[in-house]
């Protein structure tokens, strides 16, 4: 494939927390791309974000932005329920897409997206499971791949947010947050998740009224491993994502945040990141750069629509387990050859 000579014109759709951060990233950090359009149903927000970038036009309709001559690729950062319509519109123009996780919030809509990409006949989408680009997760995956530790038996994940946004619901702890561990577990182990159990301790007094926070989720995999997730989105003290893989001959653990340890006045310690933009800054930078580079080469790499669909199916089983209690099996269609 020949690499394109000009920079890639990107439309960023959704200019909230994540979208505005991606606009800044493409403008200031990423090479080979420029933001030529931003889209938000909130016109004032779109205009305010567009004003930060020379030559960027604000739109309220994703289809109008995709029709513009200077838009060659699309980064979707609207809320999960809006992703399907935007993905299908991008497929109509055969535009390359980086779609924030979750691909969609449920398995049926994710399957419709998968079927639409299959009709195109080629991959068009990289799904925003950015942990696959985080240097610590990359090291963990590389170590597991060497086989030195033997067969993975269990994964212990902790996923803590300082506070949840006002719109957060009990099911979103699974579909929006644990979606990351569904993907990380599949990717780290190379297994599909076959069943989900969700246990619910008495909610924290610091959780908003009615929010089932924290939750304890257990995945079973087709490789005979277990992966558990503590999801706690109002822990108060910061943003923490940790993973420990227990194997037959040893264990490996990431996310302790020991990059800087201080000793002072009879105490030792460090700091804890306060949000995802801080903890995963390098991962987002790598994710977007990888997407731009692959797109300019005419390729699609990284987490696929299949990965997005599989994570959505796991989360759907998780939401049922949360609501009804007990263990719920994950239902997946057969994996198409496009995603082999
Ligand atoms: P947000 O609510 O801060 O922003 C969403 C923006 O999209 C809002 O400005 C809203 O007006 C706009 N919007 C809503 N519907 C739209 C539509 N149909 N077309 C265009 N714009 C629309 O949400 P957020 O926290 O930025 O999350 C956005 C996406 O990013 C979600 O998919 C979320 O799961 C994902 N996210 C990923 C990470 C990560 O770590 N990878 C972190 C946070 C959010
Ligand atoms: C958010 O959407 C993210 O993706 C963050 O990475 C996660 O920590 C948070 O819980 C989600 O709401």
UniProtKB/TrEMBL annotation:
Ion transport is among the record's keywords: no
Ranges that cross the membrane: none
SUPFAM superfamilies assigned: Glyceraldehyde-3-phosphate dehydrogenase-like, C-terminal domain, NAD(P)-binding Rossmann-fold domains
EC number(s) from the headed UniProt entry: 1.1.1.18
Top-rank lineage group of the source organism: Bacteria
Record key words, sorted: NAD, Oxidoreductase
Coiled coil: none
One Gene Ontology term from the biological process aspect of the record: inositol catabolic process
Record carries keyword Cytoplasm: no
Catalysed reactions, semicolon-separated: myo-inositol + NAD(+) = scyllo-inosose + NADH + H(+)
A Pfam family assignment: GFO_IDH_MocA
Domain Gfo/Idh/MocA-like oxidoreductase N-terminal: 9-129
InterPro entries according to UniProt: Gfo-Idh-MocA_inositol_DH, Gfo/Idh/MocA-like_OxRdtase_C, Gfo/Idh/MocA-like_OxRdtase_N, MI/DCI_dehydrogenase, NAD(P)-bd_dom_sf
Domain (Gfo/Idh/MocA-like oxidoreductase C-terminal) ranges: 141-330
Enzyme class label: oxidoreductase
UniProt GO molecular function: inositol 2-dehydrogenase (NAD+) activity; nucleotide binding
Record-stated family: Belongs to the Gfo/Idh/MocA family.
HAMAP family: IolG
Role, per record: Involved in the oxidation of myo-inositol (MI) to 2-keto-myo-inositol (2KMI or 2-inosose).
Known partners and oligomeric status: Homotetramer.
Name of this protein: Inositol 2-dehydrogenase
Gene that this polypeptide is encoded by: iolG
């Amino acid at each position: 494939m020949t690499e394109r000579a000009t920079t890639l014109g990107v439309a960023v759709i959704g200019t909230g927390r994540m979208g505005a951060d991606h606009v800044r990233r493409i403008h200031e950090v990423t090479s080979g791309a420029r933001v030529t359009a931003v889209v938000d149903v909130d016109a004032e927000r779109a205009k305010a974000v567009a004003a930060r970038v020379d030559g960027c036009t604000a739109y309220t309709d994703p289809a109008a932005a995709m029709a513009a001559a200077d838009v060659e690729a699309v980064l979707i950062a609207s809320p999960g329920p809006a992703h399907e319509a935007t993905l299908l519109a991008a497929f109509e123009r055969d535009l390359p897409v980086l779609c924030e996780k979750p691909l969609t919030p449920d398995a049926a809509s994710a399957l419709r997206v998968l079927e639409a990409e299959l009709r195109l006949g080629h991959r068009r989408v990289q799904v925003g499971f950015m942990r696959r680009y985080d240097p610590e997760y990359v090291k963990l995956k590389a170590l597991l791949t060497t086989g030195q530790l033997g067969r993975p038996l269990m994964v212990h994940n902790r996923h803590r947010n300082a506070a949840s946004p006002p719109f957060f619901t009990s099911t979103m702890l699974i579909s929006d947050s644990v979606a990351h561990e569904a993907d990380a577990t599949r990717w780290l182990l190379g297994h599909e998740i076959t069943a989900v159990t969700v246990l619910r301790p008495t909610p924290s007094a610091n959780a908003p009224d009615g929010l089932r926070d924290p939750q304890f989720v257990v995945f079973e995999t087709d490789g005979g491993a277990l992966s558990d997730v503590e999801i706690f989105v109002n822990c108060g003290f910061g943003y923490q994502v940790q993973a420990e893989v227990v194997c037959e001959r040893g264990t490996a653990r990431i996310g302790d945040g020991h990059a800087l340890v201080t000793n002072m006045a009879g105490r030792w310690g460090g700091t804890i990141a306060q949000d995802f933009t801080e903890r995963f800054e390098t991962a987002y930078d790598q994710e977007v750069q990888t997407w731009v580079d692959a797109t300019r080469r005419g390729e699609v790499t990284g987490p696929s629509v299949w990965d997005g669909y599989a994570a959505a199916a796991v989360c759907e089983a998780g939401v049922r387990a949360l609501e009804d209690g007990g263990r719920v099996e994950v239902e997946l269609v057969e994996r198409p050859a496009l995603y082999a």
